[in-house]
Design a protein that fits this description.
Layout (H helix, E strand, L loop, with lengths): L3 E6 L21 H13 L8 E4 L3 H10 L1 H5 L4 E3 L17 H7 L25 H16 L5 E6 L1 H8 L18 E6 L9 E3 L1 H6 L9 H17 L8 H15 L4
Parallel strand pairs: 1-4, 2-3, 2-4
Antiparallel strand pairs: 1-5, 5-6
Helix pairs in contact: 1-2
């Protein structure tokens, strides 16, 4: 059976304080962000069931994972950095550090960096800040997660990327480039064991926990929300538009699978 996935947005980092800080390369958490991690640790109710930790290889997501999920780290749960779930834009704040830098900064931490390629942070080709490339990375990440043998996995990533990973664009305008608060967590199950896009859907318990009583959206409504969000993000410099015909075909195929049976 495919694992239960708990998705988490990182805690407050320095670039979250003001857009002027978006020019900072791979910023760390603020002191408030570190406190948010401690609060996350205390309010996250599933520590005992978690069998794997996965994080984006940027400093703020690594820090959030190591601080917020210290109970898992303390009992030897593996922590893997997954480059596919890095943030969407090619701004300096969303560009990760080189592997040797990460190894040095986290040399005494139980962090597995073996999945990182030397070019993981160059923001070109597979790693480009383009919608088609982002969607492909997120699909690959979901497929990788679905093949894992663990029953419950925590994934710590970024506000913009979370909308692509979940294929859910509701509320994307609520905060700067995302509808997820810092350290917010939601839980997901895979829609099917064998669909090509490996789509996920939020569990009823997760929706209830955050007070979401919205009715399921139609395929057309999902497409409209996505189009509105991505146009705004492109204007803000958070991503670049792929060729429309290829982008829309990929979206339609994904929505056909994720809304099957609604």
């Amino acid at each position: 059976m495919a694992p239960l996935i708990h998705l988490v947005r990182h805690a407050q980092a320095v670039h979250n304080l003001t857009t002027a800080n978006h020019g900072m390369h791979d910023p760390k958490l603020t002191p408030h962000g570190e406190n948010q991690c401690l609060e996350l640790q205390s309010k996250f109710p599933y520590h005992d069931s978690i069998e794997l930790l996965v994080c984006s290889p940027l400093q703020r997501t690594i820090q959030t994972t190591l601080l917020g999920f210290d109970p898992e780290i303390s009992r030897g749960v593996q922590c893997i950095a997954l480059p596919e779930i890095q943030e969407t834009s090619d701004l300096p704040c969303d560009t990760g550090s080189n592997i040797d830098v990460l190894k040095e900064k986290f040399k005494n931490k139980p962090l597995d960096l073996s999945l990182l390629r030397e070019d993981w942070n160059n923001k070109k080709d597979r790693w480009a800040a383009e919608q088609e490339a982002i969607e492909r990375r997120c699909c690959d990440a979901r497929q990788w997660l679905r093949t894992r043998n663990e029953k419950a996995i925590v994934v710590v990533t970024h506000g913009g990327l979370l909308h692509y990973l979940t294929e859910d664009w509701a509320g994307s305008e609520q905060f700067q480039g995302t509808g997820w608060e810092n350290t917010e967590f939601r839980s997901y199950r895979f829609v099917a064991e064998d669909d090509e896009s490996a789509s996920i859907e939020e569990t009823a318990e997760s929706k209830q926990r955050r007070g979401n009583k919205d009715k399921p959206l139609t395929k057309e409504e999902k497409m409209q929300l996505r189009e509105t969000a991505t146009k705004k993000w492109e204007a803000q410099g958070y991503e670049k538009t792929s060729k429309p015909e290829r982008r829309d075909l990929a979206l339609l195929m994904s929505l056909d699978q994720s809304t099957n049976g609604e």
